[in-house]
Protein 1
Amino acid sequence: MADIRSNFLGIKSPNPYWLASAPPTDKKYNVLRAFEAGWGGVVWKTLGSQVKNVSSRYSAVDFNGGRMMGFNNIELISDRPLDINLKEIAECIKLFPDRAMVVSLMADNDKKSWHELIKKVEDTGAHGLELNFGCPHGMTERGMGAAVGQDPEIACMVVEWVMEAANIPVITKLTPNVHSVVPTGRSVVKAGTNALSLINTIQSVTGIDLDTLVPNPYVAGKSVFGGYCGPAVKPIALKFLTTITQDELTKTVPVSGIGGVSTWKDAVEFMLLGASNVQVCTAVMHHGFRIIEDLCDGLNNWMDEKGFNTLDDFIGKSVDTITHWEDLDINYHHIAKINQDKCIHCGLCYIACEDTSHQSINIQKGNPYNTYTIIDEECVGCNLCQLVCPVDDCITMEEHREAPEYINWIEWQKKGLPLNDH
Amino acid sequence: MIESNKLSEKQYQENFSDIHPPYESSTAAKVDANRCLFCYDAPCMKSCPTSIDVPKFIKQIATENIKGSAKTIFSSNIMGTGCSKVCPVEKLCEGACVYNLLEEEPIPIAKLQRYSTEIAMEKNWKLFERKKSVGKKVAIVGAGPAGLSCAHALSREGIDCTIYEKESKGGGLMTYGIAAYKVTPQFCEDEVNYILSIGGIEIKYNQELGKDITLAQLKKEYDAVYLAIGVGVARQLAIPGEKLEGVVDAISFIYDIRDKGYSSVPVGDKVAVIGMGMTAIDAATQAKRLGAKEVTMLYRRTEDEMPCTKHELDIAMLDGCEVVWLAAPQKIKGSQGKVKQLVCSKMKLGEPDASGRRSPVDTGETFTLDVDMVIKAAGQTPFEKIIKKYKLDNKNGKISINENCATNIKGVFAGGDAVNGGKEVVDAVQAGKDGAFSILKYLGVKN
């Protein structure tokens, strides 16, 4: 069995799965249930000034019969009194000393407030702090949350305040509601943050009730932009993560990956792109804490199969495979191939290629089943047919290099090679 | 002993409840609808005699556009609701579903079709608007699937239709010839009314061609005539003892169950059913469900040649009906005028016949079954007498038509069972559409 223990800035946990700062981590009852289920750690729901929430708070995007492909919330930071939160944090640490307890913070925008809050949290015995510079709703209007994360200078200033007072590791959580997360990332690394985490939720409107004509979530005839998360945001999170793990400065600190992690495969992908661990929320809000079992088991089996003994053996392994377009090998070419034994004659490859791609699939009419074959000379190797095919391994992409040697776009132009393929 | 009222009312209700229950919620329908791959040039659509755009109507269920879904179905098949209950889908749309090739359950197309169309009927959605009357009149003989389908297609184009029906209810074999656990009499009536709700179609009941009305009369009074008279009684066995009390025709038996009610139809204790088509299955299962102790189905060939589907045979087997393959009735013995025994020849398969199926050959051996009732379901015969009387070109009583659905008499068209000798409801619906198309061309209403 592989060793899936995680060590993030000295914060140890039996596995790399933390629950993200969110409703599942806002009180002792939930956190103890999570620890009993096997979660490696939690980031306690953001502490700060007392707030008041509204009803309703969540909405979701369903897709083709599947629920909660994307999820949205308009909750604020913890609305429980600070004292109770602090007391419960300490109790949880005592009951489960082997789990990671990180506390999310969002103090009012002055140095004194931050210093006071950090002192109180450190007194609980918490292992780390996560600065919430990402919350995109409710708090931004008060100059907090994403309002801080969207401005590198303000973010830098707040991190400097924090680092003056903090004695335990500090993770700064970044908002994706920016063109690039790198400027803020660099700024807070310079200011001394020990680590980064990303992404927070993305501002969104999940949908409109077509009877009332009011978007969801519904609050007395109105709605607001909410924070989007869940499986739908994973690709965006992976992109933002890569920009951080490829940047010369930001890659010097560990990163906790967040954004649509639902399965062990998602977690592996975040770690391959440089995340040291991952945080999960929507998946447990959908299915409960019990999903931790397969998150650990699947990861373990995959590591065994691939020969990775520890997490560090594969963390970051895919970072360098994401390059710039102009470095791609133009001589690489592959062509689709349809396995006629596996084909179920649904015609989805044909209509996709015919209507929207390169007319590279031949149709031979039959009753009731047509036969579809690839026209090799026309296929540009775009993958579309393979992507729409409902049968595993029915359509494969076979390598047919144009030439053996690597050549990129810049050299191609320099050599004056032909541009028009048609 | 042959008697009626063998069971309690509760038992009848249980035995004749809907064999394919509908979805209980929209969520359930959407789960199945979302499984549909939305195939291009879909095999299911190609396997439907009326070419319903199956992927489209299922996608419309998935997007909660139920009205659109129902219209997609009814545009191709105005009896889409009834067909969803009676079609042998395992050899049509569902049999062609590509999931079969993955060894997965096919999409429950019929159940989804029933879902949309029953909502449409229940809400009485007016999905079709009749064009302004063009001042042409067409007489249709027979208010079965072919006649109704033809009338609806004509009425949409502004033709005024009058249907002459020999029975007191519309729907034809849908109403009178199909097992009650598939469609209820009430449903059949509702379906006919829903089709008629487009307007421009009048049905004159209890009007039989050759008795109450003549073809010459219709030809004179209308611009065109469509004959959708269907087929008649069960084929005679032409064996001794056929006149004994207890020998009944499957169609009449099924008809009585529909018309008189379960408790009023007499059924024996030991019943033999001759034939292995859909009607034979409907007769056998219903005999069992009416309280017969033993039902034995006899077929002169084997399972490989049987006309019914495997699915239908399974229904009969699950109902406890026995099947004897390679058995041909030779004579029915009786005493005091009542059926007592059925003597059968043991057959074997010989050379393929004209239909391509291996034909049964008598081995010379016989066996005898003790029975008190024999139901004949070895196919139906056309209304040969009337067809010959009117000098309509025909093949063994089946009306001959050309590629324009026209008979040899000018202005007289025909379709459905009367032409094909007896096929599925869905085939008759398509025949009605084809007939209407030809009539519109003939009348110069459409090119």
Protein 2
Amino acid sequence: MVLCQTQFISFHEAIKLKEENEELASKREIILKRLRDCMPEEAKSFDVFTQGSYAMNTGIKPLDGDFDIDVGLWFDMSREDAGPVEAKEWVFKALEGHTKDVKMKTPCVTVTYAAGYHVDVTVYSATNENCKVYLAKGKTTSKREEKYWDESNPKDLIKEIRDHLTDKDDRRQFRRVVRYLKRWKDVNFKSATGKPSGIALTSCVYHWLDIQKDIDLFNGKVTYRDLDALISLIRSMISRFQTVYEVEGGELVSYPRINVELPVSPWPNLFELMTNKQMVTFKEKLECLLDALEEAKAKSDPTDACEILRKQFGDDFPVPPRPMTGKRSVAPAVLPSTESA
Amino acid sequence: MKELLFNLPDGRTLFIREPAIQKMLGYQQSNENDCEAGGILIGRILIENNHFIIDEVSEPYPTDTRKRHRFIRSQKGHQEYFNALWEEYEGRCFYLGEWHTHPEKVPLPSTVDRRGWRENLSLLYETDSLFFIIVGTEKIKVWYGKCGTGEIACMEGGWENERKTSKKTI
């Protein structure tokens, strides 16, 4: 029975998007300058804030090197002051021509750089009579019902995730498990569609993680068990799938589905958009992950366990050469000669 | 896959990897005139939990005495073999005990064996435990010895029970 905690920690260090990532900060500055300089006159005043996993301390490095920078624009206006697409058009006008590839997408305006990263700019109506914050949804070409202000408060979400759990070391295990799961998703879901979103997985960990640690009664030393934390979390997730029935070609077909709520208002189900078939794949992959985690745990040699884990978490998961998992002796033993019969 | 796992009285485990087992099995005294063979056990004490893993065993050298019912292991050969591994692994390996074969189905240690193990346990090593393996013609048996106190206990398990033992750990 092994835990491979040392290897999990190295893996975490390898995939973690560090807060002091200068490269990303400078890229962010470039776009902010552009927004401030080129915002059309009719636009309301705005504040800027960093959002996304980076702000929640749960960011990981992308596998393909395509960094995603999230910028939120907090417009000082109510929903009545401007239409959602009207507000997004201000942003689009400010950014148009900045690179060859600027697109208005349903939830944001995306600027793609040839250097291999993109910036998603989201637009919020932040001053409303009900104190709620709304995200601008829709594109210029969208139908009327697809252009709307959608209740969503990223600042509340960031705070909720950042401050989750009071013990700072428990919180670290929470963030590590989020990152492990997000990297597992990137490694195991290759097609562009049908993968669970990062925030959906983050919310699963938020709601269902059972912190796993040992406390030494003699010296109070705390040892975290990330492998056990993952095993209990994935087991819990699998147990939450429920069967739904659909009529297909006159026959009743059953599908497994799981729901998870965003931890802040309006608590939407973050798995809502996954199709039934995608849900089947998602559940199968979770079961495969659980089998691997349990198989790894049952191993006696950490190297054998890490080889199993690497298949799930990808090449950033280290497989130590066997001797490296052993203690170092001070000097070679002096052997006796022996007699047996 | 042939791997062996034993539970120690103190909650730790001894795991013997397949390459080591295969080497020892190569010397089983299955035929009437096969002589005893033996060597030393080399392995790791894990950083993460102090459990033992036997990775390597030495094999008989010409300087050893091999008879039908006796095996005398000289220091020569085995010491050089151990030193070479110790260098290669930058000190990350320990001498963990002895193995030898017996021409009987289910092996039992002789008086000579027990005396030799006790003497060995009185010597000074960096490990707190040594293991003694006897390879019979149908069963491998492993004894656990505590350095210092010289206590010796037979461990449950063996390759016939491989499935049962490994299941316990899941």
